[in-house]
Design brief:
Helices cover about 40% and strands about 20% of the residues. With about 500 residues, the chain is α/β, with parallel strands linked by helices. It folds into two domains: about 280 residues, Aldehyde Dehydrogenase, Chain A, domain 1 (3-Layer(aba) Sandwich); about 180 residues, 3-Layer(aba) Sandwich (Aldehyde Dehydrogenase, Chain A, domain 2). The strands form five sheets. It has a seven-stranded mixed β-sheet, sandwiched between helices. It has a six-stranded mixed β-sheet with strand order 9-8-7-10-11-19, sandwiched between helices. About 55% of the residues are buried. The structure holds nicotinamide-adenine-dinucleotide.
Length: about 500
């Protein structure tokens, strides 16, 4: 093993109330991407590690599922209070292992806490329906019951928010949970689980395993896992969906995206540029809701391009753990740095004009990429078609809104899209005709708050019920119908 890796602290797993370390030989580095230094090593678990976590979750299920909903909510209120008390610590940890700026990390934690708040309402959210006298002397009542052991497999780009999209609602509904966080950012997940135990969520209700494909595949085929929540790239989402569905499990699998932003000639310039900058370069472009394609409509295009190239020139790209003023951080690891750089190179080879920004020298040690604008890329080039997942915005020009919508609707993905305009009719046409699940009108990143589902379409989502909102409650519960017949003569019978 690389000596730097061998010296790094090992990240523990959680089964029941036991934090433990397997006798693994295979470890992956956890980096501070701003500095390129190894800060921990994560054991790449497999079937044995998954088995231990699933057994702990299965053991905890009978008592937890019978715990009254208000008592489960009380534990979530306690978790919410602890997350607030540790808010700054969690945000700093997100920045350290993911590289996003401190402000972005605060947003990551805040959005996650909002899901816990939502889950605190479980006694109301999980109520069924009743219809007395649905037929003569017949009353109908529906209940929503938990599924059993659920699992969550999460990506690197939101180390706090995405795990919190899943387990608070799953356990509020009475399920127990196995979390398999991204091996690139396991530290925040471990801290969240520590806080869950401190909130007196009973041991076994939340468990943590680490690893990559082997651990994931063990979860997907485990007979005691009832449901799988996945967030990550489209190819893995499709694999997770196909494999777990074949095993008869309930699956929600969110994938990648290539989100389009449309700027109309009548858009308000300052707020539009601010929103585009945030959407394209926020979190160094590593968001499934990142604005990745910009379609300038009519004579908006040259002016927008000028303003954007000026704005990226001003961005302060820096070590986010050392400089709280940094406006953009690094990408996650050396592989991501190379992949993004080669996308840019290829875009230029295929005819795009290149603008690169950053007002400073990039720190030498971290995995930095300059904020990049590729203009007039070939519409069928990789820069225009593929998810780059880095700080690269590809800009194209369309004659009118119809052409922009038609272009956007050719994308196989369907997460988000945004229009910038001051014309209600254009906004309405766009919102109605665009083929994706989340639409922004003068909003660059139309990512829903916890009360709404995160509703990707097409190849950005595989399944029926999305994470968050009431769809999340539906996903983590199954409906039981009870039909009861009581009539006035019943009491006179003596039985058999
Ligand atoms: P990823 O698909 O590489 O990894 C996601 C998870 O899957 C990780 O836990 C990883 O260990 C596991 N995994 C990786 N390869 C696997 C394989 N072959 N088989 C089984 N499991 C495997 O994604 P990432 O790089 O961590 O995250 C970035 C991607 O996630 C982007 O495509 C982004 O758009 C997407 N994302 C989507 C959403 C959404 O809501 N749609 C949200 C955040 C991120």
């Amino acid at each position: 093993m690389n000596p730097m890796l061998a010296d790094a602290p090992a990240v523990p797993l959680l089964a029941g109330d036991q934090w433990w370390s397997p006798n693994a030989t295979d470890y992956q580095p956890v980096f501070n991407p701003s500095r390129g230094e190894i800060i921990a090593r994560v054991p790449m678990g497999g079937a044995a590690e998954v088995e231990r976590a699933v057994q702990a979750a299965a053991k905890a299920f009978p008592a937890w599922s019978k715990t009254p909903a208000p008592a489960r909510a009380a534990r979530l209120f306690a978790l919410k209070a602890l997350l607030e008390a540790h808010f700054d610590e969690l945000a700093a940890l997100v920045t350290r292992e993911n590289g996003k700026t401190l402000d972005e990390a605060r947003g990551d934690v805040r959005r996650g806490i909002e899901v816990v708040e939502f889950a605190c309402c479980i006694a109301h959210l999980a109520k069924g329906e009743a219809l007395p006298q649905v037929a003569d002397h017949l009353d109908g009542v529906t209940l929503r019951e938990p599924l059993g052991v659920c699992c969550g497999i999460t990506p690197f780009n939101f180390p706090a928010m995405v795990p919190l999209w899943m387990f608070p609602l799953a356990i509020a509904c009475g399920n127990t949970f196995v979390l398999k966080p991204s091996e690139k950012v396991p530290l925040t997940a471990v801290r969240l689980a520590e806080l869950a135990l401190a909130a007196e969520i009973p041991p076994g209700v939340l468990n943590v395993v680490h690893g990559g494909r082997e651990a994931v595949d063990a979860l997907l085929v485990h007979p005691q896992v009832a449901a799988v929540s996945f967030v990550g790239s489209t190819s893995v989402a499709q694999h997770v969906y196909a494999t777990a569905c074949q095993q008869g499990k309930r699956v929600q699998a969110a994938g990648g995206a290539k989100n389009v932003m449309v700027v109309m000639p009548d858009a308000e310039p300052d707020s539009t540029i601010r929103a585009i900058m945030g959407a394209a370069y926020g979190c160094a472009g590593q968001r499934c809701m990142a604005g990745s394609i910009l379609l300038g409509v009519g004579d908006a295009a040259p002016r927008v391009q000028q303003r954007l190239s000026d704005a990226i020139g001003d961005l302060l790209v820096d070590d986010t753990s050392a400089n709280p003023a940094a406006q953009m951080g690094p990408v996650i690891d050396p592989a991501a740095q190379q992949r993004v750089t080669s996308h840019v190179r290829q875009g230029v080879q295929q005819g795009a004009r290149l603008f690169q920004g950053g007002r400073n020298e990039l720190p030498a040690e971290g995995f930095f990429v300059r904020p990049t604008l590729l203009c007039d890329a070939a519409p069928d080039s990789a820069a225009a078609q593929d998810e780059v997942f880095g700080p690269v915005l590809t800009m194209l020009h369309t004659r009118d809104l119809d052409e922009a919508i038609a272009w956007a609707n050719r994308s196989p993905y369907g997460n988000g899209a945004a229009i910038f305009t001051s014309h209600g009719g254009a906004a309405r046409q766009f919102a109605r005709e665009i083929q994706c699940g989340m639409v922004g009108v003068n909003v660059g990143v139309p990512a829903p708050m916890a009360v709404f589902a995160f509703s990707g379409w097409n190849r950005s989502f595989f399944g029926d019920l999305h994470v968050q909102g009431t769809e999340g409650v539906m996903f983590y519960t199954r409906q039981k119908l009870i039909l009861s017949r009581w009539d006035a003569t019943y009491q006179r019978h003596q039985g058999w």
